[in-house]
Amino acid sequence: MSTSQNSTPVITFWTRISQSSRDLVIALIVIASVFLLSAKLDLSEKFIEWALAHESLQLDEFPLVLFAAAFVSIWFSRRRMREMISEANRRIKAEHASQESQRMFKTLFDQGLCGNFIADIKGNILLCNQSFSAMSGNSESTLNLKKAIGARWDELCSKLQSVEKVDIPELTVARPDNAPWIVMARLTRALDNPQSQEKKIHGFFTDITEQHLAERELAVLLKENQALARHAMQVQEEERRNIAREIHDEMGQYLTAIRLELASLPKDKQHPLTEFAVRINSHVEHIQQAVRGLIHRLRPTALDAHGIAEAIEQLVNEWKKQHPAVDCQLALDKSCLSLPEKISIVAYRIVQESLTNIARHAHANHISIKLIGTRGILSDTLTIEIRDDGVGFNPHTPRAGFGLSGMRERVEAEGGTFNVQSQGKGVVISANLPLSTEPKAIQES
Ligand SMILES: Nc1ncnc2c1ncn2[C@@H]1O[C@H](COP(=O)(O)OP(=O)(O)OP(=O)(O)O)[C@@H](O)[C@H]1O
Ligand SMILES: [Mg+2]
C-alpha cells in the first residue's frame, strides 16, 4: 500500500515530462549509478593499480581513449539522427502528396461527366462512378464488358499490353436492358497493385447514343429528301415532255393548217384580202417560231434524238446567235456521247440555266463551258464547269431566284456535288455527277 502511494508522484512526474527530459533523467541516473558503484567498489583505484602493474601495455591511457570513443559515437549518432529526421520528413511529405493526388483522382473519377470504370480483364466492373451507372441504366453490377462488347474486348485487352491507351471513336455496347448504347471510349492500363496478379483496365465512356441516333435519322431524312427531289425532277421533266408534245400536236397542227389555208387563197395582189392574208401568214409564222422555241426549251428534241453532246452544241449555238458579242467556248469530252439519260438531262439543264443567268445578270465578254468525264476508282464522274468573266455576285447572300437552287437540287438528287464560286469578278458554276450509283468493283492489275 505504502509502495503504491510513494510511486504515484514518480509515475505522474515521469508521464508528464517530455521524451528528451526522460532521456536526460535516464542519462543522469546511469552516470550517478556508475559514479556511486565506482566509488563504493574503488574501481578506478583497482584499475590504476592493475594498469601500473602492466605499464608496458600503456593501459593508463585507456580512459582518455574511452572518452574520445564516446565523443565520436555521440557525434555520429547525432548526425545519423538528423539524417533519419530529414528522411522521415521527406516520407511524410511524399505521403501527403500521394494522399492529395489520390483525393484528386477520386474526385475526377467520381465527379467526371464521363462514365469512368475499372474492370478486370474478364470484363467484370470492379468500380465505377455515377455517370457510368447512369449511362449503363444502373446495371453495372450485372454488366460484363466482355459479353457486352464481344470479341472486341479481348482484342482491346491484348492491344493494351503493348500500348498505354486505346481510343475507340464509336463502340456499340449491349446494355443488359437492351436499350441502345453507343459510346466513344478510351481504355488505359490501370496502375497495378504489385501484390495483385490480375491486370486491370481503366475505361472512360462518353455516351454518344443520342447524337448517333440523331445522325442516323438525319441521314435517312437526307436520303428521303434526295429521293423526293429526284422524283420531283423526274415528274417535272415528264410533265414538260407532255406539255411539249401537247403543244406540238395541238397548236402546231392548227398553225400549220392555218398557213396551208392561207397558201390556198388566190394570189391576186389587187384583192383587198391578200394583204390581210400575207400579214396573217407572217403572224402565224412568228407564233410557229415562238412555239418551236417553247417546245425546244421544254424538251430539247436533240437530247432524245442525238444525245447530250449534240443537244448542248445546239443550245450553245442558239445562244451564240442571240449574243454574237460574247465569246463562248465549248469543250465536250468524248465520254459525253454516252451518258445515262437522267445525267444528260441534269447536265443539259445546268448549261441551259447557266447561259440564261449569264445573259440576264453577268454582262460577260467570255464564257467557257466544259463537260469532262473522269474515271475514278469507285465511280466515273462527269464534271461540268461554266465560267464567265462578268460582274459576279456574292453567292453567300440569300437570293430570290430558283435557278441556282434548282441546279443544286438536281445535282444532289443524283448524289453529286454542286458549287458556285464568285470572287468579285466572274462566276464559276461547277458540278460533279457520279455516272454510276453502284461503286465499281476494284480490278486487280
Ligand atoms: N453568272 C452570273 N453572273 C452574275 N450574277 C449571277 C450569275 N448567276 C446568278 N447570278 C446572281 O444570282 C442570282 C440568283 O440566280 P438564280 O438563277 O437562282 O435566280 P434568277 O436568275 O434571279 O431567277 P430565276 O429563278 O428565273 O432563275 C441572280 O439574281 C443574280 O443576281
Ligand atoms: Mg436564273
Describe, in plain words, how this protein is organized in 3D.
This protein starts with a helix and ends in an 11-residue tail after the last strand. It has 4 domains: 91 residues; 96 residues, 2-Layer Sandwich (Beta-Lactamase); 87 residues; 143 residues, Heat Shock Protein 90. α8 runs antiparallel to α9, α8 crosses α13 and α11 packs parallel to α12. The protein has 445 residues and is an alpha+beta fold. 57% of the residues lie in helices and 17% in strands. The chain has a 5-stranded antiparallel β-sheet with strand order 2-1-5-4-3. Strands 6-7-8-10-9 form a 5-stranded mixed β-sheet, with helices on one face. It binds adenosine-5'-triphosphate (ATP) and magnesium ion (MG). Adenosine-5'-triphosphate (ATP) binds next to α12 and α13.
